[in-house]
Structures are given as C-alpha cells and as structure tokens.
Amino acid sequence: MHPKIFTVFLLLFFSFFQGQTYSTEFYNTDNGLPQNSVKDIIKDRYGFIWLTTENGIVRYDGTNFSVYKNFPLNSQRFTYFYGSIEKDSIFSAGGYGDKILLHGKYPRVIKSFKKNQDIIAVQNHKDYFLYCSNYNYDVSRNLNLYMTFQKGRYFITKNEILYQPYGNGPDQHLKNNPIRNIPRIFAIGERLFRIDDPTKKVIQIEEGKITEAFTAPLLTDTESKIFWSKINGQVFILNRNCFYTCFYEGRQLKVKKLIQLKHFKEDNLVSVYFDPSYKKLYLGSSTKGLQIISISDFISSKRDPLKFSNVFYSTIPYSDSSVITPSGEIYDRNGYMDSKHFRNHTQFFVDYDHQRNIMVRNEKELKIYQKKNVYTSFVPAFTEGIIKDFMYDSQRYYALTAEVKKSSRTEFSGRLIIFKGLSFREVEKKFFFDREVTKLIRKDHDHLLVGSIKGLYKVSLRSDKISKITTGDHLSIRNMVKSKDGHIWITTLGKGFYLLKNDSLIKMPLDSNQNLLSAHTLLEDGKGFFWIPTNNGLYKVHENQLLKYSKDRKHPVDYYRFSKESGFDTNEFNGGGNISGNQLKSGEFVLPSLDGLVFFDPMKVRAYYPGNIYLERAEIDDRELRFKDHLYATQESAQIEIFIDVPYYGNTDNIVMSAKMDGTPNSRWEPIGKNRKFSVFNPGYGKHVLMVKMLVSDRGQYIYKKINIIIPPYFYQTFWFKTLIFLGILLLVYLLVKWRIRFLTRKNQELEKIISLRTKSLSDMVENLETTKTQLRKEIELQKKLIGTITHDITTPIKFITLITGEVIEKKEFDTQRTEKIFNSIYKSSHQLYNFTMTLKEYADIYYQHRSDESKLYSLYKLVEEKKVLFHAIAENNGTTIINHVSPEIQTWISKNILAAIIHNLLDNSVKFTKNGSITINSSLEKDFITLTLKDTGIGMDDQKIEYYTQLQNNIEHEKLLLQKYGMGLHLVLQLLQMIESKIIFEKNPLQGTSFTLILKNKKDD
Predict the structure, then answer these.
(1) Stretch 413-439: mean pLDDT, rounded?
(2) Which of 246, 275, 123, 121 has the alpha carbon at shortest distance from 186?
(3) Alpha-carbon distance 86 to 101, whole Å?
(4) Which of 657, 636, 639 is nearest to 648 (CA)?
(5) Which helix H or strand E contains 925, and what residues bound it?
(6) Contacting residues for 905 by C-beta, under 8 A, at least 6 apart
(7) Residue 724 falls within a domain, yes or no?
(8) At 747, phi and psi to the nearest 5?
(9) Domain final residue, candidates 658, 685, 712
(10) What range does the record give for the signal peptide (predicted)?
C-alpha cells in the first residue's frame, strides 16, 4: 500500500468519538416480542422499526410492538430484509420461499416479484442465493451467493467472484478467499469490498474491477466481527466490545468509534442497526431477543459507589472543565480527579470570595482556604450564625446567616449582614428576619432580594426598610436566578417556580407530571433555553414561552423532560445548597444529584421530538381495521377507538398530543394518553371530523392531522325519506282541507260575513267600554279622595275666617295692632285656600288634557331644558346653578303634559329650598325604562316626609292624604306618576340635599 494512503488511514482510524455513556433496554418474549430470535432490523421511510423473527414480523414504534404473524403462508419464520427503503418497497423471505412486502407501514403477502427481486438467481445451471447481510444464510454449507447493484450482479462462489453487467458488457472474473463461516465481503453503496486475509487489506471493487486497496487493521483483525446490511447501507465493526461504523467518504474508507460497551456478550449477535436520528443502537440476537442501546449526551461523574458517597449538593467551578465540592474533591466529565481534603465541612455551602479563595462552612464557623497556598490551609472568618448564602460586589461583602431561636431548638431566625469593604472584619449593617433565610440576590442598585422558608423579602439599601413580597401562599424559597435579559426567576420547595415582575410573583405552569413543583434552579444556555433540575428529571423550556405565558395565561408552555434513559444514573437532582448548578467556561453544565455530578453540554444535547402522526387504524366492536382518510362505522357501534401511531424513540413524556371531534357539543382539545388512543362514544350518524395535533419542536410548532368519521343513517333518518314523508303529509292535509272547504264554503259564506261584522262591532264596543270603565273608576276614586281630603282640609281655614269675621262684627272697634293681626290671619287662611284651589285646577287641566292628548315622540333633553330656562332666573337669584346632564339621544312617548308637570313640581321644590348650591339632572336608558334623577344641595327633606311619601306611593289608594301638612305639590306628582305607570324614589344625599329618582315606563300609548 502507498505510504501516504496508509498514513491517511491511520489518521482516520484514530479519529474516534470521545467515550460516551449509554443506557440499555432489553426486549424478549416477556415484554413484547413473539420470539427471541431477531434476524434482521431496519427502519422504514415512515420512521417505524421492523424486526424479522422466527414467529412473524414485528413493527416497533418506540413504545409498542405490533406483531404480524397470521399470514396465509406455510411458515411464519422470516430471516432478512431487502429491497429499497426510499421507494417504500421492502421485502422479506420466509422459510419456504414465501415472500412478504412491506409497503405503506404494513406487511402483506405477494405472489410475484419484479426483476432483480428474486431470492434465488440461476447462473450456469447453479442456484445462487441473494446475499444482502452477513447472517442471512448459514454459509457453512458452501452456498453460492449473488448480489445486485444498479449496473450489474456479482456471483460469489467459494473461490471466485463473477461480475455480470446488465446489457452487453463482458463478464469480470475475480479471485475470492475461500469462504469459511461468513463471507468476508460487504457493500457500501455501489461499491463492493472484499477483505483479503493473506495481505491484510480491504479490496475495493467497482463494476467488477479492483479500484483501490486499503490497510484497515480493524476490518482485517481476526478478533473483529463485521455486520452489514445492504438495505440499511450500514457497516459495523465489533472489536473487543467496542462498536465502530465503517463508511466510504471522499474516496476513503473511514472508521469511527461509535460506543464502547461494558460487560457485553457478543455471542449469537446476528443483526445490528444504528439510528442516527435518535442515537440508538439496535442489536438483534438469535437467542436473547432485542437489545437497544441509547447513546447519551449526559455523563454522571462519580467515584466508586462501594467506597464513597456520590450524593452531591453545592459545587463551584474549579477550572474550565471541572468543579470542586465543599469537601475539596475535584471532578470533571471523566470522573474524580483530585482532592484538597477540606475537613469538617457541610455539603450545602461552598463559594469563592473576591480573591478566588474558597469558602466552606460547618455548623460553627466559616473557613476560607487560601488560593496562594493552593487551598491547602485556611483562615477562620466569622462565627456569627450559620452562613447560608454569600455574594459580593466591587465595594462590600453580603452574607445571609441563620441561627437557632432562643425559644426553640428547631426553628431558625435569619440575618442579612453587610460588611464594610471586601472582608468579614467590620459590619456595616444588619437586617433581621423572623424566619430562616435561604437565598440572596441583587434586584437592582438599591435593593436586595432575600428568600426565606416562609416568603420573599425586598431590602432597601437606602431606607433600610424590609418589605415582603407575597402571593397568598407561604413560599419556601429554594433559589433565585437572574436571566441574561434581567428577569428574576424564583424556585420554591413544593410550590413550583415564579417570575418576579413589578414586585409581584407570577406562578409558571407545571409539567404534566407536576415534577416542577420541586424545581431546584435554572441554568440558561446560549439559545435562551432554561434547564431546570427537579426531584424527578431534568426539564428544558425556552424563556420566551414563559414570558408569553406571564402576559397571557392561555399561551401554552411546552416542557421537555430528560430522565434516566437520557444517560444519568438517577432522576433525582439535588437543591438546598447555595449553588445548585454550574456553567463552566467550556460551555458544560454541571448539576448535583443523588448519584453523581451530571456533566453535559447544553448546546450539543438534542431534544427528540416526534416527526409525524399516522391515523390509519381503529378498533370497532373488538375488531381492528385499517383506513386512509375516511373511517366508516355504523350506528350499532357503541364505541370507536382510533389508534394514533407515532414512531418516536425518546422519552414518551415529551409526546404532547391532543385531539378534538368537530361537530359535537362542547368540542375542545383533549390530551391523548400514553396508550395513544382516542375513544368516540355514540357519535350519531353523519360526518364527523377528528383533528389531532402534536408538538414537533421546542419552538412550539405543531403538526395537524384529520380524518373523517362517516356513520351512515338508517333509511328513515335520510333526508330524502324525511322529505317524502313531509310532502306526503302536506298533500294529505291539502286534500282534506280542500274537501272540507268545498263542503262548507257555500253554507258558511253569508253566516261568516254576518258574524264577522257583528263580532268586530261588539269587540270594539266591549274594548271601549272596558277602557272607559277603568278610566272612570280610577277618576271617580281619585276625585272622591281628593274632594274628601280638600273638604276636610279647607274646613279649618274657612272656620277660622268665620270666627275672625264674627269677632269683628261683634266688637266693631279694635286698635291698630289688633286689626293688623286679624287681617294677617284672614290673609294667610285665604292664601292657603287660594293655593288649594289653584293646585286643584292645575290637576284638572292636566288630567283632561292628558285624556285628549295624542302620544308623540319627543326629546327628554329639550323638555328638561325648557323647564331649566323657566326656573333659571329664580335659581340665579338664589345663587343656585341648574345643570342638565340628560342625554340628547333619549326619545320618549310619555305624555308630555304629565311629565312636564312632574318635572316642574320637582324643580320648583328644589329651587325653592336650595340656596347657593346646584341642581343636577341626569338620565339613563335601560330597555323600556328611563331613569331621571334630580339631585339638589338644598336643605333636603326630613326622614318623616320621605317615609310618608314612600308609603303613600306604595298604597296611594288607601293612604290618607295630608295635604294641609305637606301641601299639594308632591301629592300631585304621585298622582301623575300613577297615571303614566311610573315610580319615584326619595333619597337623602350623603352630604346635603335630596335626590329624586324617577323610573319612567317608556312606551307608546296605544
């Protein structure tokens, strides 16, 4: 081999992947497989994994195994796959020449093959069996094999390789190594490679000609096993429990390390497939079923668990790629490195001071290990309480401490201590808290945030005041983190995590399993994603989704969960320390857990989302069927279960699917459970649309699929049947009516005319009489009551005038003072009689005008404005302002004369009793009622008057009228309101004056 080629190969050979961790799953007849022999493994174009076994063909979607073994064949034993994945044309051969075609996600038996798809080819009267993977035949029987390519075929015998091109080209003969157990031949694309054992080289053959020879130690090593599959286009090398991939690129044969396995038993391994999209290695055994190895991006760094504890809490970065614990142990992604042997410490606190000295503590004191001594010696700091958290800026130190309360041995109080300068020597300020403090962070230049086991506090550095930020819950603060854009995020113990915005806490939504109740901290990567460790898994979410949720609670937030299957050894991460996660300069994150320190690069860890949904299967009455876009069922089917097939090989917690059925009452999106079924109960006949949506990216993108569920009606439920029945009934009714009309028409024509005329006349007369009767009754009753009241009230002034005049007649002589007194009494009594008479006349005028008045539409605003102008001069003379706030848009049918009299009386009273004040008139309209409010600032009505008029209004027909005591004005108003079916409400204003609220029935009189 040419020296340059050999050098290039060595460089390629040693360019392996860095060692990776992995997790393993095993499947056999106990958990899904129909048989423990997995002969071949492929992945179709739709994303499903297919296995051949000796008891059927198996489809695997990442969660469930679907077994197909009831084919109408002589045997259900299948060996290898061949054909084309891209063309959705995958074949498998059975034990007796039976043939299966995988197409459209389902297998079926076929009877004929196209050219170049036979499993046996005949050449020179010899049978050659199709060769497309290592272990598809037991070649110890010296079988002759053939391989197909785009331009020709290779026929392989014990000592020779014959290339036969399609067309008229000459055959090419090549020597071959004697076949032992497995042919030392494999293909990559259109190139054939033969391992030449004598020369320890790999020969490249193209179209029957040798074009290159490579020195490939791994391929020629007798300890290596080669696994290849032509349909998958993959070649693997297994050497000393290490898997390598072999591929052709840039005219070079390249080898890369895939994964190093521990305690791996390679016996009976017959099939290998690697899924690069999910980084999973599938290994099929002839006796032990299927093994799935998931290559992880996470590494758990720890020491020997039999000798050391691997429970970690607080850590800080030590170098660009390592961290140090409070005990002084240093770890990187490859495990334990060294120890500084810090003694007598607690695992919950470690930090740097401004000189990069390392601070650790115990229950009594703070120790500072000196950087200048390579952290081999320490100096004690202060012993004032147990330090819980620490921070510093360019001017001073800040420390949170806790100490046991004197009144209790189990409860703690807290302090925030601010030191002068960058040392612990002199205290500048102290702030005291009744509860144990947990976390400290700077909010802005003038404020600090202090978390405690009972809530969150804001400390002002200027005013030295402490204010509590509450949400109604007693929050135990676990951590506080400020993101790159300045937002402050709060994690709690058992209450989820929050966004601090405008000094209030906004609770973020939880994941479906509510594991985020125990969120420990948040680490932000370079793409704006938060990584949140919890007591049950690691979660990833983009900050923008959380910020959108804080503005709109309906905005969805999608969390991605990493669990043990992702590569770490426990789902329980640890919080409680002052630092619950680190970001190293190398870009890696480090999280403490109950079983090691978890190292990972967030920019390289991939979140796996499903790519497609398939709605093709359903179960109706315990019978499974397949469909495309339309699912047909009958009304006898009480329940329809629709299977939602999703090829997905990650954590099923990250499948976010929901579905809804259109056309049903209260249709809404319902989450799909892990069984991936949607059940429909008695949907009724007609066309129903089932919509399914699924999250496919960490940016909140969804894909949608829909199917039509068609349930035909019974014949009597069809439109045409109902139409015919309706038309038949109409026809029958028409004929009956027509016959009856003809029979009665002649007989009833004259009688109908006479009855019609008389009925109309009598109806009109009765209606008029009833109306008149009602009006007269009310008028008579009202007049009786008014006359009786006026007669009673007028007796006193008349009697008084009679007595005075009699006295004058008898005595005849009076002095001037006595005369003036008598005439003044006569004047007052006469004036009272005059007012009674005028009020009575005004009432009569309004009443009879109303009876003859026609109802017309007019503006309420203009009517009030007219009355305002009328009383303007009087009000102005009293120093009073009349304000008209009635809406100009209100139009009314209420009798204008009556309403004008009512407003006049009310406005007259308000002007009369209001000095140096204001009278405001407002209005509102609600349905058929107008509310008119007159509010003054005068002397106001007393409670006795308000009670009297309120009782009088509620029982005006039976209450006694006190006209002499209270005058006729408001009595008249009440009588007029009764005439227009309206009400008045009297109320004393809170400060001064009275409010009169009219509730007017706004309707047109017929």
Answers:
(1) 94
(2) 246
(3) 14
(4) 657
(5) strand 918-926
(6) 969, 970, 972, 973
(7) yes
(8) -70, -30
(9) 712
(10) 1-19
Q: Is 332 exposed, middle or buried (CB count within 10 Å of its CB: 0-12, 13-18, 19+)?
A: buried
Under 8 Å between Cβ of 578 and 349: yes
No. of helices (H) and no. of strands (E), the chain = 10, 70
Distances (CA, A) of 856 to 286, 860, 1003, 1006: 101, 12, 11, 11
Which pLDDT belongs to residue 936?
A: 92
Residues in the chain: 1006
Question: CB count, 10 Å around CB of 248?
Answer: 18
597 is in which domain, residue-wise? 498-607
Same structural domain for residues 901 and 868?
Answer: yes
Domain count, the chain: 5
- Gap between the Cα atoms of 333 and 262, Å rounded: 18
> In the predicted model, what is the mean pLDDT of residues 272-298?
94
Q: By three-state DSSP, how is residue 763 classified?
A: helix
Task: Give the Cβ contact number of residue 735 at 10 Å.
Answer: 10
Residues 658, 773 within the same domain: no
Residue pair 435/453 in contact by the 8 Å Cβ criterion: yes
Name 66's bridge partners.
Answer: 59
Predicted pLDDT at 5: 39
d(CA 432, CA 421): 21
> In sequence order, which ranges of 295-339 are alpha helices (DSSP H)?
none
More confident residue, 598 or 119: 598
Tokens for 202? 């790999």
Listed in sequence order, the residues at least 6 apart from 165 whose beta carbon sits closer than 8 Å to its beta carbon are 151, 152, 171, 207, 208
Say if CB 342 and CB 360 are below 8 A apart: yes
* 733 vs 726: CA distance, rounded Å: 11
pLDDT at 35 over 60: yes
The position carrying tokens 């007369």 is: 765
* CA 693/CA 640 separation, integer angstroms: 19
* Burial track 849-875 (b if 16+ CB lie within 10 A, e otherwise): ebeeeeeeeeebbebbbebbebbeeeb
In a domain, 890, yes or no: yes
Residue 1006 domain flag:
no
Q: Which DSSP string corresponds to 782-835?
A: HHHHHHHHHHHHHHHHHHHHHHHHHHHHHH----HHHHHHHHHHHHHHHHHHHH
Residue the block writes with tokens 């005319």 = 753
CA 437 – CA 400 distance, rounded (Å): 7
257 Cβ neighbours under 8 A, 6+ residues apart: 16, 17, 242, 243, 244
When pLDDT is cut at 50, 70 and 90, the band that residue 44 belongs to is: very high
Q: Are residues 534 and 679 in the same domain?
A: no
Type of residue at 830: S
CB-based contacts of 959-966 (< 8 A; 24+ apart in sequence): 960/789, 961/785, 961/786, 961/789, 963/789, 963/790, 963/793, 963/836, 964/793, 964/796, 964/832
Amino acid making up residue 201: K
Of the candidates 128, 102, 117, 108, the residue with the CA atom closest to the CA atom of residue 49? 102
Strand order in the sheet with 397-404: 386-392, 397-404, 412-419, 427-433
Q: What is the pLDDT of residues 724-766, one digit of tens each?
A: 999 999 999 999 998 988 888 888 877 877 888 888 888 888 8
User: Residue 331 domain-assigned?
Assistant: no
Across the chain, mean pLDDT equals 86
Closest CA to 20 of 294, 305, 302, 330: 294
Secondary structure of residue 723 in the 3-state scheme: helix
Please indicate, yes or no, whether residues 226 and 85 belong to a single structural domain of this protein.
yes
d(Cα 192, Cα 150) in Å, to the nearest integer? 12
Cβ neighbors of 620 (< 8 A, separation 6 or more) are 633, 637, 639, 640, 641
